[in-house]
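Following up on my earlier thread - several people asked me to post the actual chain instead of describing it. Fair enough. Here it is, all 250 residues.
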Amino acid sequence: MGDIEAMAQLQTTGPEPKGTAGERAAPLDRALAALAANPVLGLLSDEARRGMVAGGSQLALEPGRLLCQAGDAGDAVYVLLDGEIEVGMRSVGGHDLRLVSHLSGAIVGEMAALDGGTRSADMVSVRRSSLWRIPRALLIQALESEPKAAVALVVELSRRLRASNEALEAARILDLGARVANLLLKEAGAGGRVQLTQTEIARRVGASREKVNRKLHDFVAQALVRLTAAGVVIEAPDRLAHIIESAKRG
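Reply from S.P.:
Thanks for posting it. Predicted structure:
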């Protein structure tokens, strides 16, 4: 499904004759606030941000729906107002490979929008998401007129490219146990708690839920983690790190 087809299946929020002026202005206000808070677009002038919002439109995606896929035209950039958009692709073995996940306030789809090329990966809504679609021409115009934002976007692209390379490298050299261990350590919060479901873990490491479940129970048997109703709790982070390093050494 391409960008145009995907957009046709999205819910577009715009002015409605029956709504009050305040109700019609609410999406615009949210979009302006999101652009102002973004570390890249926040460097633009108020006038430039207002122009980008005025020329854009709001989109709503249900969980699991494609925003766009590899090969689609890079004719727009998106600002994620709320929700989560996951960027990924198919691995050589046919598994879904997650590259990065974007949360509220992030710019999405900027690489193809900058060079006018095609999308290099799929973008899908992990949970119900709301985005503001900004046509490529408006983005380019704003960046050309205000170089500080252009430089900041280059820095952000470099960071994302590094993260994508790390994900690809991990998928290439790490076995399933090491990939699960790597994800758990990265996602661990206070008390070593990882608030991801086994389905989410499986999607992120590119494996089936059944295989991930077996691997987690292996970790439990080795006293590396505990499984609770709220998620996984890491018991031995140093030993999980050792699993990753051993896999890297082959």
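Confidence is low (pLDDT under 50) at residues 1-24. That should answer part of your original question.
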